[in-house]
Specification:
alpha+beta, FAD/NAD(P)-binding domain, Cholesterol Oxidase, domain 2, 2 domains, 7-stranded antiparallel sheet, 16 helices, 26% helix
Length: 525
């Protein structure tokens, strides 16, 4: 007899979303993950209190092993934060990922990358789901389940309500500080002129609690978001584990790293390592939810397939806005992730999306690395300037990606990054449009601050085993079933046929819920 009906490899949002409908239907589920948990915890006091008063802040800012200093060359501040070290630790080495011109990021932590994300959410419209090989309505229940489990804030009637599509489940927006209030007021006063250029602005929709629930407390605007939320206001699928464990048919197997899946008659056996010792689990069906890169390597190795496959990566950029009229504004502790978001029409059916963030909770060193002055002068300038500045980001769709993955002879996964030639031109066009739009809103996009990221820099990738109506080798069926390895399903980003510029986590969760429900019916006695 197999160890369970369904083995789910990965405890990120996709894995937990697939687990709930299976458990609710009475199926036995084992969830395996890398099992890493934090050893350094985020501060509880507001950031402006911690800076002058916390004599142990070096632990969570620099790390007991000087983690932040040892990772100074990494691409994003998230990868340099000691409180998030466990999230990214050993992923490439353990999963044997080799990258060239690509930022390969994944997680062995319980809860996966949802332990260190920006909390931005959105729902894909029916028109945007047209390339998915099933009716858009099939995701409706999954979107609702995801929103209700996460907790969503940002509901307001504004120019991005339809774009985000989540206000049905959302709480009102979190409090907004002075700089964002100034930009939104200017936008509202000159809305017709600005929207005519293809730029639209609105409140960010985020997976952050606006009011207490069960074992999680609402956001109090401490400004510690980059370091993690001691109140658990920011959603992580690790918070789903207690609810999963309430089912008697659920077991959690932390520390099990799967290498390969082998068919054994009518069942499957997942082979790997548990705490350094060879280990295996058997199941009637197996779900891969280990993150795109890890799931892809397991699938390719299990198929014995060394075919080069495309991988979608969304181009990104970051920039700094200065609000001259608010120069000298006193810093305030506030919600540290997106407070305002925007969409921008870049022509030829190309759109950009992004959000702006306060600088209060971001270390000064993150800005000094881009300054053209000696460090002492950079520090002096930034201390006076940053309280009147906002950080912005930009995402394009994965249609620009020319990145690939391939399983090597030694079983490692080689990821090569690249973007199409038009990517640079579109980025320049986007920078120009954003500069003009924010100027009208009272903000200056600082010269030379617009910085384009490397492939993989979005820390979201997709599409290595896309769902197809007529699957072939290297793709999956509409239910995420791997062609050539029937009975094994992919529910994370690897099965997405397209990567939008929009935040895609809710779509991953909704799709995983849909596949979990499909499997529950398929496994009926």
């Amino acid at each position: 007899m197999p160890d369970c009906d369904v083995l789910i490899i990965g405890s990120g949002p996709s894995g937990t979303s697939a687990a709930f409908p299976l458990l609710e239907s009475g199926k036995s589920v084992i969830m395996a993950d890398g099992g890493k948990t934090p050893s350094i915890f985020p501060p509880e006091k507001p950031i402006l209190e911690s800076r002058p008063n916390d004599d142990r802040q070096w632990e969570w800012k620099i790390g007991r092993d000087f983690y932040a200093l040892r990772h100074v060359e990494t691409s994003t501040p998230k990868l340099r934060v000691p409180t998030h070290a466990y999230v990214f630790e050993d992923f490439e080495k353990t999963n044997r990922i080799i990258s060239e011109n690509f930022i390969a990021v994944g997680s062995l932590a319980t809860g996966g990358l949802s332990n260190a994300w920006g909390c931005g959410i959105a729902r894909l419209s029916h028109a945007e789901l047209r390339v998915f090989p099933f009716a858009p309505e099939e995701l409706d229940d999954g979107y609702a389940a995801a929103a209700q489990r996460m907790g969503v804030s940002g509901k307001v009637d504004d120019d991005l309500s339809a774009f985000f599509g989540v206000d049905t489940w959302a709480e009102p927006p979190l409090p907004m500080e002075t700089l964002h209030t100034h930009i939104l007021r200017n936008y509202s006063q000159k809305r017709d002129a600005i929207t005519a250029t293809g730029f639209r602005l609105g409140r960010s929709r985020v997976a952050v609690l606006g009011r207490d629930r069960k074992n999680r407390l609402c956001c109090h605007g401490t400004g510690n978001c980059l370091w993690g939320c001691a109140r658990k206001a920011q959603y992580s699928s690790a918070y789903d584990l207690p609810d999963l464990k309430n089912f008697s048919s659920f077991r959690h197997k932390p520390g099990f790293i799967v290498e390969e899946i082998v068919r054994e008659g009518k069942t499957f056996r997942a082979h790997g390592v548990l705490q350094g010792t060879p280990y295996a689990l058997s199941a009637t069906k197996i779900i891969l939810a280990a993150g795109v890169l890890a799931s892809t390597r397991i699938a390719l190795r299990s198929l014995g397939l060394q075919k080069e496959l495309p991988i979608l990566s969304a181009p990104t950029a970051a920039f700094l806005l200065w609000l001259p009229r608010l120069f000298g504004t006193k810093p305030s502790a506030t919600f540290g992730f997106g407070q305002l978001s925007y969409t921008v029409d870049l022509g030829n059916d190309i759109a950009g999306y992004g959000s702006t963030f306060c600088t209060t909770g971001i270390p000064l060193s993150e800005f000094m690395r881009f300054m053209p002055f000696a460090r002492p002068y950079s520090a002096m300038l930034l201390r006076g300037l940053l309280s009147s500045c906002l950080v912005g980001n930009l995402f394009l769709s994965g249609s620009f990606s020319l990145s690939t993955v391939r399983l090597k002879d030694d079983g490692s996964l080689l990821v090569r990054g690249g973007f199409s030639k038009k990517h640079s031109e579109v980025m320049r066009h986007a920078a120009a449009k954003l500069r003009r739009a924010y100027w009208v809103c009272g903000a200056v996009l600082l010269p030379t601050s617009f910085t384009v990221g490397m492939p993989g820099g979005d820390i979201h990738c997709a599409g290595t085993f896309p769902m197809r109506a007529q699957p072939v080798l290297g793709t999956t069926s509409p239910s995420g079933e791997i062609h050539g390895l029937e009975g094994v399903f992919i529910v994370d980003g690897a099965c997405l046929p397209e990567l939008s510029e929009k935040p895609h986590l809710m779509t991953l969760m909704a799709n995983a819920h849909r596949i979990g429900r499909h499997l529950a019916k398929e496994l009926l006695p």
